[in-house]
Amino acid sequence: MQLTLAASLALSSLAVTSTVLAAGGGVVAALLLAAGAAMLAHGLFVWLESWFSHAFAYRVLGGLRKDVHRAIERAAPMGLGRRRTGDVVARAMGDVETLEWFFAHTLGAALAALITPSVLIGVLTALTGPQALLLLLPAVLLVLVPAVFQRRQRQAGTELRERTGALAVTALDGIQSIAELLSRGRTDALQQQLKDGTAGIQRVKARIAWLRGGEGALVEVILAATSLLVLLALAFQAGEIPLLLLPTLSGLAMAALNPVMGLAGILARIGEISAASSRVLEILDLPDPLDHALETAPPPSAGRADSAPALEFADVRFSFPGGPAVLDGVSFQVPRGQTLAIVGESGAGKSTLGSLMLRFADPNDGVVRVDGHDARTLEPDELRRLVALIPQDSFVFASSVRTNLRLADPAAGDEALWSALRRAALAERIGVLPDGLDGLPGDRGEGLSGGERQRLGLARAFLRDPEILVLDESLASLDPELEERILTELRLARADRTTVLIAHRLRSIEAADAVLFLAAGRVRAQGTHEELLHREDYRGLLASQLPDPPPAPGGRAADEKGGATHGEPGH
């Protein structure tokens, strides 16, 4: 591409010079035709280079976005640590988009900067002698200019990407909490945060502009010195070079440096691109919380032992990397078709138990078994077809009710969808929407109450009909009457379903066949609700909900060492 540009300039220069020197009309016409052809070729190559480079860049970016999504999916939800949603979004979208510029423009520019000067300096050397090799000096200097500013450019680029990510976090938090901010009159504080974040970004951009301006000034000085050098060299050889070639040689000398100058301009953005690349690589390098080496077992349905408990934890220990123990030697069993309530203070490890049941992470030690199979021998997708988790805050997508429900069963028809809604006590509410199942519940379900969002999550579970259902405070926002109705539906819907209720409300706990009492990551006690009521610490946990004084001691709940799940050996 750059060579065709140089050819068109050289031929045009020769044509003009030939005209001035009164060369034959045929020669001038031929030169003009050749120059026109070179210009057309240049335009064609510019288009081809742009098309191929952007096609390549978009293909690479498409693959990179998929890799980033897979990395987030692999690490989520437990492997993302304390990363904030806005920052992850900024990395997955903004930083990846920044890399597009590198893939679309750098490769072609680098090839042009390597090939064009080599060819043109070779031509000039053949025409004028070895002094043309002096052009190598400014070519090298033009490439070295960005290196002089590289460290400061990288620092500024890193700060720019981090500030951009922080601003994205602030904006996302502000949008999601706008009702809370309005009710408390705190929108001014949000506006100030956005203003300060934007001002910080502008300061960094101004610093980057100063650095690029300094690079540009050095480049112009080098080009001016090169022009002077070329003129002096041509003047020195004035008697040896035909007058006809002088303008052409001067143009070729500048054309030799043009792609190098373009590459220098591209390298000026390397600091920001390098920072974006580092932020994306941090996501790609997130560790996988699962050990896939043991995933060799057949699906549980192929090797189920009816005598095995539906769910079993055997001396399970778990901690986050570099953190204290979250679970320490937890052991319990849940027979098939039974309901287990897990209770404990906040931070006791209840939700972590639920996450391990779905294999969002593997335990550091001990074994989690599902239908008698070590969960680590099952592929995550296979395990999650058997076990479903309903979190306290079920996510509602900004789409129709139908689409949100079909997350559980993409092939479900309207009759199945309405049946699931009725079982979740949500059919009447959805029925009054103008478009029914096609109605939009709003962004993240803002058009629904907290309890209605929970019931939408329950409707998904009913539609999916898993063998093991884990409810992590999923009934916490329901009024007592609705809670009772849902608990009854859970019991009647499927007799062989195993249910785990992570709960703090008395009605849910009373509905369970057995209770597991956690404290500081350990099993404090396990047994029936009535048995555990004889423990002072258990009564203290539920004191605000107990209507009457506890009954007189008549038995003791099993402790963590020798107890059965609900008073029966082996359970």
UniProtKB/TrEMBL annotation:
Compartments in which it is found: Cell inner membrane
GO cellular component: plasma membrane
Single Gene Ontology MF annotation: ATP binding
Keywords: ATP-binding, Cell inner membrane, Cell membrane, Membrane, Nucleotide-binding, Signal, Transmembrane, Transmembrane helix, Transport
All residue ranges annotated as the ABC transmembrane type-1 domain in the record: 1-272
Protein topology in the membrane: Multi-pass membrane protein
Signal peptide: 1-22
Region described as Disordered: 542-571
Major localization class: membrane
Record keyword Disulfide bond present: no
Domain called ABC transporter: residue spans: 311-545
Annotated transmembrane regions: 101-126, 132-149, 217-238
Positions with biased composition (Basic and acidic residues): 557-571
Membership in a protein family: Belongs to the ABC transporter superfamily. Siderophore-Fe(3+) uptake transporter (SIUT) (TC 3.A.1.21) family.
Full protein name: ABC transporter
Source species: Sediminivirga luteola
Lineage, opening ranks: Bacteria, Bacillati, Actinomycetota, Actinomycetes, Micrococcales
